[in-house]
Amino acid sequence: MRPRRTVLSVPGHVEKMHHKAARSQADVVMLDLEDSVPLNEKENARKLAVRSLLSIDWQGKSVTTRINGLETPFGYRDLLSVAEEAGRQLDAIVIPKVDHSGDVHFADRLLSGIELNKRFANRIGIEAIIESAVGLERISEIAGAGRRLKALVFGVADFSASIGARLVSISGHGEKEEALYPGHRWHFTLSRIVMAAKAHGLMAIDAPYGNFRDPDGLRRSAVMACALGCDGKWAIHPDQIDTINEVFSPSAEDIERARKVLAAYDEAEAQGRGVASVDGRMIDAATMRLAKILYEQARHLNLVK
Question: What are phi and psi of 128, to 5 degrees?
Fold first, then answer.
């Protein structure tokens, strides 16, 4: 699957931002029809998203569209219009507030019909945002809901509201957490999402960091998410892209360490040994798998040949 280090969210009704996003270094651009769009702009946002999908040179980026919730009067129309009119350019439909596997099954069946009718060569994926206690409780069922599913995404603000957690910042998106809780307040939640995603071969994407003028806070948030096994993080401002890309990319030191591990393990296998050592440290098959994943990620990002 293509890298999803940085997913840049842009409002669907602000067309100039679509062009700017296409020129950015984000791996994925997400045209948002949901929270960033006021009610009186919903239909216009949908039309502009379709136009942008069809007319902009996305320079090899993956492009997704977040529809409105399927429980709203806008969601089904978003799904139909965007997929039918611009599905050939669409990597995935992002479904917010997924509380039940039925949301994924519904979108899956509808997309299948659209693809058959339109004779699309590509298969449109689905990303599910986990934003409530109900969604987290049913996450294994949701993660296994279909082959179209590409990623699970953490929606921190709505999740906080669903469990009655305190609002400690203006945005509600990951700021000032350390002032309230001695540790990572969303450690269990994010780990649970990562576990379900990886058990079903999906990517896990962290929520955005709300204060785009706080690069140190963004870096701390991204490093923690990466350490827990997330593959990337949403961005709400172009200034956040470089930091997120850096955190979720293997460093030169990481790549060299992985190369040493793989070389040592290959040598040990050739000699009939199940373990090897590098710089005085034992490595085994589990270490080798970690190194292989990192090295393959570096290859996908053209950091190694």
Answer: -110, 130
For residue range 129-142, what is the model confidence (pLDDT) as tens digits? 999 999 999 999 99
Cα gap 234→263, rounded to integer Å: 35
Place of tokens 């373990």: 275
How many residues are there in the chain?
305
Q: pLDDT (tens digit, 9 = 90+) per residue, 133-185?
A: 999 999 999 999 989 999 999 999 999 999 998 766 555 555 566 666 667 88
Q: Which own/partner pairs from 217-225 qualify as long-range (CB within 8 Å, at least 24 positions apart)? A: 217/174, 217/175, 218/243, 218/244, 219/243, 219/247, 221/174, 222/247, 222/248, 223/247, 224/184, 225/190
pLDDT score at 181: 64
What does the CA dihedral 74, 78, 81, 84 come to, rounded to 10 degrees?
Answer: -140
pLDDT above 90: percentage of residues in the chain: 72
Domains and CATH numbers, the chain: 6-247 (3.20.20.60), 252-300 (no CATH)
Question: How far is Cα 263 from Cα 276, in angstroms, rounded to an integer?
Answer: 10
Residue matched to tokens 């949908």 = 46
Q: Which spans in 200-284 are helix H?
A: 215-227, 241-247, 252-270
| 129 token code pair | 């945002």
Query: What b/e readout covers 70-83, taking b as 16+ CB neighbours within 10 angstroms?
Result: beeebbbbbbebbb
CB count in 10 Å sphere of residue 248: 23
- Secondary structure element (H or E) that encloses residue 112, with its range: helix 101-118
What pLDDT does residue 247 have? Answer: 97
92-95 and 232-235 as β-strands: parallel, antiparallel, unpaired? unpaired
Please count the CA atoms within 13 angstroms of the CA of 93 that sit on its side-chain side.
34
Cβ atoms of 234 and 208 within 8 Å: the answer is yes
Q: What is the DSSP letter of 25?
A: S
